[in-house]
Amino acid sequence: MRHGKKFNHLGRKAAHRKAMLSNMATSLILHKRISTTLAKAKELKKYVEPLVSRAKEDTTHNRRIAFSYLKSKDAIIALFGEISSKVGTRPGGYTRIIKTGFRLGDNAEMCIIELVDYNDLMLKDAKPAKKTTRRSRRGSGKSADAPAKPAVEAKTEEPKAPEASDSTEGETEEK
User: Fold this and answer.
1) How many angstroms separate the CA atoms of 130 and 21, rounded?
2) How far, in Å, CA of 52 to CA of 115, rounded?
3) What are phi and psi of 102, to 5 degrees?
4) Which residues of 15-38 are buried (b: 16+ CB within 10 A; e: fewer)?
5) Which of 1-5, 98-102, 131-135, 140-144 is predicted with the least confidence, judged by mean pLDDT?
6) Contact indicator for 110, 36 with CB cutoff of 8 Å
7) DSSP string spanning 129-166?
8) Running DSSP on this structure, what letter comes out for residue 108?
9) pTM reported for the whole predicted model
10) Which of 74, 85, 111, 162 lies most in the core, judged by the most C-beta atoms within 10 Å?
11) Separation between Cα atoms, residue 119 and residue 111, nearest integer Å
């Protein structure tokens, strides 16, 4: 029976799994976005989000705990510097998983996991949507006589003027 066994072992022994998650978390912190399988991304989300929450309070104790997970000085500097300042007001949900399809070789479901405040495309969605107009099937809503007359006059006048000027200039140049 598997009662109470909640996390995915990802087909690896404990030491391999811990090292893999540590390396993936370091890459995510340094590069802000990585591509991986969906199962690994879900486990990585559980691994990284508590570290980002700890980074909000910059104490020696929190730095040492984060270092025991990440084992990279560069990642700790980025986590407690740039990332903690961006997510300081956010109450949680620091990562986003975007599904990208299936891998060709083994058909594994692939995704991109990224830090939420670093995607410029998602941040631009906050602008208001373009205004749409409602159209009826009966017509354009304008009177039928008004647009028809200028359109006919414009069509008849424009082609005549260039043809006349082109033919007279061409004949005078040839003779």
Assistant:
1) 42
2) 10
3) -120, 145
4) eebeebbbebbbbbbeebebebeb
5) 140-144
6) yes
7) PPP-----SS--SS-SHHHHHHHHHHHHHHHHHHHHHH
8) P
9) 0.69
10) 111
11) 15
Chain-centroid distance of CA 30 in Å reads 18
Identify residue 144 by its one-letter amino acid code. A
pLDDT at residue 105 in the model: 94
Maximum CA extent, the chain: 103
* Residue 174, amino acid: E
Q: Give yes or no for a contact between 132 and 76, defined as CB atoms under 8 angstroms apart.
A: no
Q: How far apart (Å, rounded) are the C-alpha atoms in residues 70 and 83?
A: 15
d(CA 85, CA 71): 21
* Interval 19-49: pLDDT, tens: 999 999 999 999 999 999 999 999 999 999 9
105 three-class SS: coil
Secondary-structure percent of the chain, ordered helix, strand, coil, rounded to 5: 60, 10, 30
* Average pLDDT of span 76-97: 94
Residue 137 confidence class, pLDDT cut points 50, 70, 90: confident
Burial of 71 (0-12, 13-18, 19+ CB in 10 A): middle
Averaged pLDDT, 89-107: 95
